Fold this protein.
Amino acid sequence: MLERSAALVDGTSADVLKLSVSTSATEIEEFDHGVGLIESFSNVVSFDTEDGHVLFDVSHALSAPSVVEQFRRYSDAPVNTAVYTHGHTDHVGGAGAFDADAEGRGHRRITYVGHEAIPARFDRYKTTNGYNGHINMRQFRLPAPSFPRKFVYPDVTYRESTTLDVGGRVFELHHARGETDDHTWAWIPDAKAIAVGDFFIWQFPNAGNPQKVQRYALDWAVALRAMAALGPELMLPAHGPAIGGRERVAMVLNDTASALEHLHDATLALMNAGARLDEIIHTVTLPEELADKPYLRATYDEPEFVVRNIWRLYGGWYDGNPANLKPAREVELAREMATLVGGAEALARRGEELAARGDLRLACHFVEMAALAEPESRTIHAIRAAVYEQRRRSETSMMATGIYRAAAHDSKKITDA
């Protein structure tokens, strides 16, 4: 694993890692000091102690049975403690499988540890179960909305930082806002290792996500700088392979921090100058020397979405356009535009022309208005489906492709009816 990650970081491998949604788990790989990592939907990191194992994350409910199987091929010792790096379901959903394993072996119940904001997240997930199900359906190409309703809440919570001493091994837990408001990263001094959760995912940071709640780009960068300052020699992420070597770990942490700091500072400078959101999202980009890093490719989230999240954090939902403060209904605007140009199909045909010449951003506006103006037209929806399919193929991030694929699929259902 360390050889694979070294080749990626050092540029001797041309591979680009993408986030895996596999429900199978790899065989655990053990490093020095009794540290192990199982790669799966989300990774499970294990530290051996004299009083059982300490885990960081328990993976997704769908992948957890495979993860438990691989873990038990490695060790029969009890799991003493499991730390949630944050409350996303792919990191906490496997608690039931680990609990069942412990009960079946006659081990004492696992103690779950996490930041104090995790229980509120679980409560919110229950309240917004349907909405999150629709997000999953779009983002991961599911046939129907799907989201869990049951969660294993942490037994022990903390606010800013805390230290766990398990079986003679010390784990220093630190809270920082980043992808979530409940994120934990850990420094394990005797192994000179950091468990970073989703603060590093082998992609451009998931700090934008257009369908999710607020993310925190600057806080994320500050946390990465704090990790680098400790001089870790082993970095254990929740997605993708571990990274070894002090200089290599410092480089990926600091590069990721630099990318987030650049987007934050450039966005805030334009906001302070009075720019509208429209100007900012079409102006602020990531420097090429950072965008080309193999561990900062925009294959999951992307910089433009992070810019929007920075605006949302500081500026709220008003985008600077007075017409959008209390807008007309989209369908009314679409019908007026259709009347102006001679019909909804004319709007769709113009969108088709724009797509043919590669102006996909503008093309999507036209086909969307056309479909709103005449929602039952198979001709219009055939054009809309084709434009969004073309848009999907032109994008790199899973966030964008999932939404455009869903839009194309919705129109195809009408044309196939």
